[in-house]
Amino acid sequence: MERTHNNGELRLSDVNKEVTLLGWVAKRRNLGSLVFIDLRDRYGITQVICDESLDEITSKIRNEYVLQVKGKVVQRQNPNPSLKTGEIEVEASEITIINTAETTPLIIANETDALEDTRMKYRYLDLRRPIMQEKLVIRHKITQTIREFLNNRDFIEVETPILTSTTPEGARDYLVPSRVNPGKFYALPQSPQLFKQLLMISGLERYYQIARCFRDEDLRSDRQPDFTQVDIEMSFMEEHEIMDLVEKMFAKVLKDVKDFEIKLPLRQIKYKDALGKYGSDKPDTRFGFELVALNDVFVNTEYRIFKDILGQNGYIKGINAKGLSDNISRKDIDKYTELVKKYHAKGLSWARVKEDTLEGPLAKNLTKEEINGLIKRFESNNGDILFIVSDINFEITCLSLGALRSELGKRFTPPKKDTFDLLWIVDFPLFEFDEDTQTIMAAHHPFTRPFKEDEHLLDTEPLKVRSHHYDLVLNGYELGSGSLRIYDQEMQRKVFKIIGLSDEDIEKRFGFFVNAFKYGTPPHGGLALGLDRIAMILTNSDSIRDVIAFPKNASAIDPMSEAPSEVSLKQLEELHLKIVKD
Length: 582
Known about the structure:
Elements: E1 18-30, E2 35-41, E3 44-50, H1 55-58, E4 66-75, E5 88-99, H2 116-121, H3 123-126, H4 130-151, E6 156-157, E7 175-177, E8 185-187, H5 193-201, E9 206-214, E10 226-235, H6 239-258, E11 267-270, H7 271-278, E12 292-293, H8 304-311, E13 315-321, H9 330-342, E14 349-354, E15 357-359, H10 368-377, E16 385-391, H11 394-412, E17 422-426, E18 431-434, E19 439-442, E20 469-474, E21 477-484, H12 489-498, H13 503-516, E22 524-530, H14 531-538, H15 569-574
Helix pairs in contact: 4-6, 4-14, 7-11, 9-11, 12-13
């Protein structure tokens, strides 16, 4: 099809030019002697004027018809400042209907009345909306900037297998049955972790990939079963060198995509400090409500709950919601209590600051000295409301209050859009204890290198071992995780043993990987960033579904293609499978 210009291109400098445009009808307005058509393509909208000589064809035109328009550019008498082309319009001399369209099930405009399920079922129509196309363009710019940055620093892009073997990496695998090897299964990769480490053993030194990953886990607004990550690995680099490179890369992304300057180097907060101050290992520090330690305030308390906690070397922490006593009702407090219980806290203590003392259920159980100590520690004033959680477990105490902190911040001090709070969380534990299975697990993945000075604790107190793990956090979201990797065969085997893998398990799951360590493995490390999550934040979207062309819903279903779907009995027989119903 012939097209001289796109629909976001024409300006006053083009007046009197004869042009040919192509696009969809965004809107048709009949004013009697004149018909106005807003013609839309990916680049914008151009207003087209049709006089009575074109009545025969304009009477047939409806929204979302595909047209070719020929005509002359003229200056618009009433400019529209909301359009890039708002100072001109095109007087049509000829219109061709290229294709017709039925009435669409959703309004195709930045603002639509459709529910998300309808938008996802008719995703090809939802993606016609300019705001959705803009999100995908921004996503494209992000990947282009990353590729340019890494290419200029001698990285090479390498694709790794999609069909691979199952490995324990923190989530359930998606399994693919093999037709030619009956009873055996491939696994879709949760990440390219093993392969990128093998590429370092191969001597490639600097690798990256815009990698597709798959995890069979419960979904939420920032999680999908299939997702994309920016996967990076480097040899012969220390932790600070890797972090320095990554933060410079992300600074370039923010500058190129959002024209936003960030100050480097980025802040680094230790894992325990982040939990203790913000109640999260991915804190949003753009608002307050920071956690306050209270153990010493109650060192001599007779209040049974706090006394029992301290007797078990537990923790008492709190948040001061400054000036919000009148804004937080008893119903709100009940809601906050249920919130902290979701994070395994046993309850939420609270008190209002009024007339230079405390009021509420907690105050009745405290001495005057303890009340004054709380007011002083929280730097309280009249009109404040205090919230306190106590537990024998540090993580439960902090994480439950962290959830409350996020709720208070979202409700009372929501950060402005296009503000970017970027930082590193460092010094994570190497292992964690799983209460359900009563076993030790890798805190992130079992290939993370322990601190040299903590290696002596591996045999006696493994839960105290710190790791060379680092997370990049933006606005309260974990953008990506990275680490220095274990490169010593015996150290790798020891870590596998600590998480309960037998020699047989190691050989069966990681034989090819562990065997590669025999042949001169270089020190190496890397990081993986969630591309979908980055695009979600930089487009001010509420969900990563808005920055993925064809996403799944919260039930891991694609309403458009209706995947996952049933398959024929013949297909199952070819794969030597049988469906067993409950």
